[in-house]
């Protein structure tokens, strides 16, 4: 079955921007890189919020290669954010970027945020890619840090996306959805569950938007033209989340 198409990217006469936003955990590109790029290209995103980008030997070259294969450019992040990465199309004009390291809990993997402020059309947008902790208390604290970071970006509108390692009923997920729009909950489209590709049974990856952004649709693009089940299974161990958002002119 072919799902209803999401709106195409465009700039409205009033300067507002319809943007396509993709969130994707790519497991350090350890799987089928060409399948991964095909999935990303088929989604035709303006902005890609990546988790588990390569962090070690020649990580910048790996990120640049994925961006080139996906017909995008690297915006910020990667090893300097301990995994979160932002890619964008040439539609975005970059105002500033910052990679943020979060406090280290001994014995646990260090986490970080890849952040940027961009302009698309007449819209000024804050961006934050995240991958929250596997440990419940640390994850809850990081959700609070994420909200604080968005507030400190001094932008009229913001989008954050990533692997939350939590379900919608979990307290960290709920901490975010109480202050931000959970795009799937607002305008469900496509599939819901993001883990795992072979047995989708839980939604632990999500896209959130601040109030004032109109959510036109959000979900897992399993039946999007150009995406095959074999590619999404081969690309990585998560399914992607795709959203179309209308961001008002700033």
Summarize the structure.
With 250 residues, this protein is an alpha+beta fold.
Give the key terms:
250 residues; seven-stranded mixed sheet; 6 helices; 23% helix
Characterise the protein shown here.
Strands 1, 2, 3, 4, 5, 12 and 13 form a 7-stranded mixed beta sheet that branches. With 250 residues, the chain is an alpha+beta fold. Helix 1 (33-43) crosses helix 6 and helix 3 (136-152) packs parallel to helix 4 (171-177). The protein has helices at 33-43, 59-69, 136-152, 171-177, 183-186, 229-235, and strands at 10-11, 17-25, 47-51, 73-77, 85-88, 93-101, 112-120, 123-131, 157-163, 181-182, 205-209, 214-219, 241-247. The model has no long low-confidence stretch (mean pLDDT 97). It contains 6 helices and 13 strands.
Structural class: alpha+beta
Poorly predicted parts: none
> How many strands appear in the DSSP assignment?
13
Distance between the termini: 38 Å
Spell out the blueprint of helices and strands:
Blueprint: E1 10-11, E2 17-25, H1 33-43, E3 47-51, H2 59-69, E4 73-77, E5 85-88, E6 93-101, E7 112-120, E8 123-131, H3 136-152, E9 157-163, H4 171-177, E10 181-182, H5 183-186, E11 205-209, E12 214-219, H6 229-235, E13 241-247
Parallel strand pairs: 2-3, 8-9
Antiparallel strand pairs: 1-2, 2-13, 3-5, 4-5, 6-7, 7-8, 9-11, 10-11, 12-13
Helix pairs in contact: 1-6, 3-4
């Amino acid at each position: 079955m072919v799902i209803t198409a999401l709106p195409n990217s465009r700039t409205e006469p009033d300067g507002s921007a319809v943007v396509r936003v993709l969130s994707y955990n790519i497991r350090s590109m350890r799987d089928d890189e060409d399948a991964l790029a095909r999935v990303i290209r088929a989604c035709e995103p303006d902005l890609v919020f990546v988790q588990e980008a390569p962090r070690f030997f020649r990580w910048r070259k790996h990120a640049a290669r994925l961006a080139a294969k996906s017909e995008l450019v690297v915006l910020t992040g990667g090893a300097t954010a301990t995994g979160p990465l932002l890619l964008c199309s040439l539609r975005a004009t970059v105002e500033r970027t910052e990679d943020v390291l979060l406090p280290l809990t001994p014995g646990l993997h260090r986490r970080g945020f890849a952040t940027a402020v961009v302009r698309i059309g007449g819209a000024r947008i804050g961006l934050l890619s995240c991958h929250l902790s596997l440990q419940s208390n640390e994850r809850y604290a990081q959700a609070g840090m994420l909200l604080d970071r968005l507030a400190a970006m001094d932008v009229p509108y913001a989008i954050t996306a990533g692997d939350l390692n939590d379900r919608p009923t979990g307290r960290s997920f709920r901490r975010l959805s109480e202050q931000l729009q959970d795009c799937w909950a607002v305008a469900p489209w496509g599939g819901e569950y993001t883990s795992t590709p072979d047995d989708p049974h839980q939604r632990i990856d999500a896209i959130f938007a601040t109030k004032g952004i109109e959510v036109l649709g959000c979900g897992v693009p399993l039946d999007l033209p150009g995406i095959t089940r074999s590619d999404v299974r081969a690309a990585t161990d998560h399914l992607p989340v795709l959203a179309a958002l209308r961001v008002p002119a700033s």
